[in-house]
Amino acid sequence: MELIYTAQRDGFEPGRMYRNPRHFDQIELGVESVVVVGDWPKVAAAYEEVGAEVSVIEVPKMAPQKVVVVGDLSSGVSELLVAELASIGMIVESFAVQSLERPEGELSETASRLFEVLEAVNVGVSSLQHERDSAVEQVAKLEQEKLDLLKQLDELKVANVDPEIEAMKAKLDGAGISYRANASKESLQKLVDDLPKV
Fold first, then answer.
1. Which residues are in coiled coils (predicted)?
2. Nearest to 47 by CA among 60, 34, 38, 57
């Protein structure tokens, strides 16, 4: 059996078995050949130790990206950027603790827009919370109404018990004769009349 250890996320060939080397903790039994894509020495060494054939495919390393600064930033622009970042930081922090506050003074366009967006989010969340609370109250009211109706139904059942019907049902039960639960008084009377006389 051959295994391919790679951190790739797509481009898998059908019929081949892949494993993610980031999740490697032990070898898999029965593996004869292993292909390791990238720098995963722990995986390669573990399979070499048990005698599996190990092939390592080097992945070219990406060169770090360089930031190019064209000209110097004037101290005025630099101060504006620092102030804007400070305003944005204050807005984000106040939003994170669920107490959105507008910083004092003039806000930059970006900071002002961020504040407006987060304020709209707060309004939306508040509206959803209000709707949720209303729905919870409605559910509680409906549950109480249901309990009241069930109680009334039980009271009506007790009030509507006909002693003659109950007596006929008892006679039929004693004789082992079955009848419909909602049988009329007349049908119960007929069944009782058909009982053998003792």
1. 125-159
2. 34
3-state SS assignment for residue 68: coil
38: which DSSP letter? S
* pTM for this model (two decimals): 0.39
Q: Write the burial class of residue 184 (CB in 10 Å: 0-12 exposed, 13-18 middle, 19+ buried).
A: exposed
Task: Say if strands 2-5 and 17-19 run parallel, antiparallel, or are unpaired.
Answer: parallel
H or E segment and range at residue 131: helix 109-159
Per DSSP, helices labelled H in the chain are 41-49, 75-96, 109-159, 163-175, 185-193
Rounded Cα gap, residues 150 and 95, in angstroms: 48
Q: Which pLDDT score is estimated for 69?
A: 54
**Which segments of the chain have a pLDDT < 70?**
60-76, 198
* CA neighbor of 177 nearest in space, from 161, 162, 188, 165: 188
Asked if 37 contacts 5 with a C-beta cutoff of 8 angstroms, the reply is yes
Q: What is the pLDDT of residue 64?
A: 57
- 53 strand-pairing partners: 33
At residue 1, what is the residue type? Answer: M
State residue 96's pLDDT score.
79
Q: Torsion over CA of 47, 49, 52 and 55, rounded to 10 degrees?
A: 60
Query: Helix (H, G, I), strand (E, B), or coil: what is residue 74?
Result: coil
Instruction: Match 């000209």 to its residue by tokens.
Output: 71
